[in-house]
Amino acid sequence: MRGSKMVGCAIVVALAATACGGSGGDSESKGKSGGGFSMNIAEPKRLVPQSTTESGGSQVLSGLFTPLVDFDAKNQPVLAAAESIESPDNKVWTVKLKDATWHDGKPVTAKDYVGAWNWGAYGPNAADGNYFFGTIQGYDEMNPVDPDGEEGPKKAEEPKAKELSGLKVIDDKTFEITLKAPFAGYKSVLGYTVFYPMPESALSDLKAYEEAPIGQGPFQMDGKWNHDKFVKVKAYPDYKLGDKPKVDSVEFRIFQDQNTAYNDLLANNLDIVDQIPTEVMGTAPGELGDRFKTSQASTFQFVAFPTYDKKYSDARVRKAISMAIDRDEIIKVVFQDSQSSARSFVSPVVGGYREDTCGEACKFDPAAAKKLLAEAGGIEGNKINIGHNADGGHEQWINATCDQLKKNLGLDCVSQAVPKFAELLTQVENKKFSGMFRMGWIMDYPSMENYLGPLYSTGGSSNYYGYSNKDFDRLLQEGREAKTEAEAIQKWQAAEDVLAKDMPVIPLRFGKNVFGHSTNVKNVEMNLFNQVELTKVEKS
């Protein structure tokens, strides 16, 4: 399953928020009794599908739900919960569902999808995944533009509609989606978390539902979400949308420190750590042996500039800071070569990727950086800070980055930690964080568009820095409307070139999954979406 999104951790690097580890929950399961296993996650921000756009929550929901489509080894969409997804014109899409039941035994219907999506698209609900419904007809009526011309969940006007006019229930197992414009790659988009359904009962009391979500996936909740401690799930016996789990239960233990999670793993008190801490990268292979694992991932780590801070309003300042960072050295010294330098804005795992698209701005050149910063008039107070979430294992690399900026630009640079990733996201979203801040991204679906749209389009779901460029938005949309993948990629590459000129963020690293497991389990795999494949794990 997928996770989109913002990643919280440093190593597995990825896109947006990864479960990080560290202060074990008080639970009895150690992955030995009852055919269960345990793994680490960060405290989820939400457990409502339409509002879950970070990796901790997405990992949990990947067990509770089955998407309409999954992806094969070539990143092509394959039907999962859908029996068919068809369109004659790439604008009107008809989805037919396979027979399935909710975890309470009731049948899953087309109405459950339409109701959940309408809730996510309705602006006043402030769903974090609201943006992803923006391609569907009727979205604008549910999300009026505020007086400042900015789109977002908080609206100055009351929406004119509460339902998407582009969604229509045909029968119990069929619904129709009408987009605002053709989108050839829309089938892949439907694999993302925000397009999961919710039972009708959820919408009447979402607060209660979120504490113990009812899904239609291979696992069901076992009790309620015990905040900051754990989430327990158990195999759903009537699951019929895919492979059934090979274990009876999973315990997602919530950690605030990755090193604590890793120590629990070494003691066989935790079965899976989805991200080996940076500090032990040199020793972990020897300590874990063949239980030290790596695999390809779609993660992308970067530092963002807050557009609401005048200190970083000049593109020359942003480029100078980027040019003063020696990515290769940090990867070698801090990450033990477990990641690779990023000098582009999209991951190498998607079609259309090009090397070095950010050009001179991502080339390490201290002399040129210092000159460019001087031409821009320097930085007020000669001070900068880089924010990060304390539960993600970022302190070491951010301190190394600050050391380079002190040396190469003469800036007083400090690391600024916020306790939790969810808290950091909330602060920057509400423009209450002052300074630069690290972000990460894991693709939601395999497309250049998924790296560009959510992160950089005006009102994008994960555009926490407020970047806006009309030319970029136009090229992005033209790519969506292109008739062929080749034509779409050409437009999206042109949009990426706009980013290289504006530098709203500093590309730093592309990552891979670097994870480990205890002697209690086997067949542990992580996918491109930075998630453990829960149904594949077996007891040793």
From TrEMBL:
GO molecular function, one term: peptide transmembrane transporter activity
Keyword Signal applies: yes
Residue ranges of domain Solute-binding protein family in the record: 77-462
PROSITE patterns found in the cross-reference section: PROKAR_LIPOPROTEIN
Gene Ontology BP terms: peptide transport
Protein name: ABC transporter substrate-binding protein
Entry GO terms, CC: ATP-binding cassette (ABC) transporter complex; periplasmic space
Region (Disordered): 20-40
Signal sequence extent: 1-19
Record Pfam families: SBP_bac_5
Sorted UniProt keywords: Signal
Entry annotated with the keyword Signal: yes
